[in-house]
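Support request, please re-run this one:
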Amino acid sequence: MFKLNKLLAAALPLGLLCVSAVQAETLNIVTVNNGHMIKMTELSKEYEKANPGVELNWITLDEGTLRERVTTDIASKGGQFDVMTIGMYETPIWAKREWLVPIEATDAYDVDDILPAMRDGLSYDGKLYAAPFYGESSLLLYRKDLVKKAGKSIDGRPTWDQVKDIAAAIHNPDEGVYGICLRGRAGWGENMAFFGTLVNTFGGRWFDENWQPQINTDAWKKATEFYVDLLTNYGPPNSENNSFNEILKLTNEGKCGMWIDASIAASFVSDPKQGKYANQMAFAQTPVEKTENGANWLWAWALAIPASSQNVDEAQKFINWATSKEYIELVAANDGWASVPTGTRSSTYANDNFKNAAKFAEAEFAAIQSADPNKSTLEAVPYVGVQFVTIPEFQAIGNFVKEQIQSVLTGKYTAEQALKRGDKFAERELKKAGYYK
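Re-run finished. Output below.
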């Protein structure tokens, strides 16, 4: 048999032998269609050059579709993806279920350089299960020229009443300027990402210490009515359709006087290549009402390896590259230090090149440092999380409540009707899961 194989090999063309010997290995990577991720898909050509024989197959989706696809695939052990983009909600839950492979970082990777808030949120039982590609809190982004023209000012961390007053003063739809832009598209990580922090500052919480739902309460009602009033009177039309990318576009066109959203947006709106009013953009901490607890959300888009992957070793190698200090330096070399993915490493915020280039750096770092998933509400709670609750049942609950909040914005339900529905659904889900009888 050995001699026969040698004879067959001798008869084959040399080119065919080379293809057979160096068969390309394909990594299927699913990610979100945010700016930093799009840049990663472009720069990954450098990775392929340095690693001949590896082909990266990118699947890029919007946030809502991404969450649906990866949740379905990992729960069914479908094996469609070798690298998934997930966040702080999924990571500890999926790691506990042994759906993820622990990240094996090299010494050069420098795990200790990752910001503690990000490392802790992406770990389970002391092990890192997803490597942060970029991290974020939330910020108030605003056009300082409009605020100044209205005779107003924003310092440090304003109250929600101050924000409403400023929104009214700068709102000028006849000239294409809206007082404030906020997420309205339904999704537990879309409108609820922002709305959850608003509820926190109004003194609300998802559940009490005995896991009884607290959605149908005065705090939630006041927050809901405030949110709807703000967007109805001072926001752009059809706000129920807007999420991060839609509002980013509006802001870069100069149409949003204020925007409260992910701190990562600061690098985009302050980039003169992207925004007409980039030089007029300024940044403050997110507003408060009754408490500062939970005012700043905490999130990381991170790269993880599903246990169903057939290419674990190559996936580990790619993640070590894509979330490294060297990758950040590659982005800086291509697009400048103000454009690097932030919110992940101490070394980024200690870098003078970054601090000089990114006028948002101080505000973003302060926001991340102030976000505490273990103390996100005014009253005591049994859960961890700022804009979400780290329990498996939250995804279903959040996805139901998202529709209720959007329905108030569109006028389908009153706040009271919507919150009653949300409360009953949450109670039913937790009873079914055995939290109580």
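The longest strand covers residues 25-32. Confidence is low (pLDDT under 50) at residues 1-22.
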